[in-house]
Design a protein that fits this description.
The protein is mainly alpha-helical and 43 residues long. It has a domain at 9-34. 49% of the residues lie in helices and 0% in strands. The protein has 2 helices and no strands. It has helices at residues 11-17, 19-32. The termini are close together.
């Protein structure tokens, strides 16, 4: 949706290695962009 580059590694690899870290990063990115992650995908 935001067209963020998957660098230095892709999303799948990041979720496989550290799921909690990946989800925390995604949550913070959504909050910083004004979305409410608690609502789910309502954009």
């Amino acid at each position: 949706m935001f067209k963020l580059p998957e660098e230095p590694h892709g999303d799948c690899l990041l979720h496989e290695c550290c799921c909690v870290c990946a989800l925390t990063q995604e949550y913070r990115e959504l909050k910083n962009r004004g979305a409410d992650p608690a609502l789910g995908n309502q954009l």
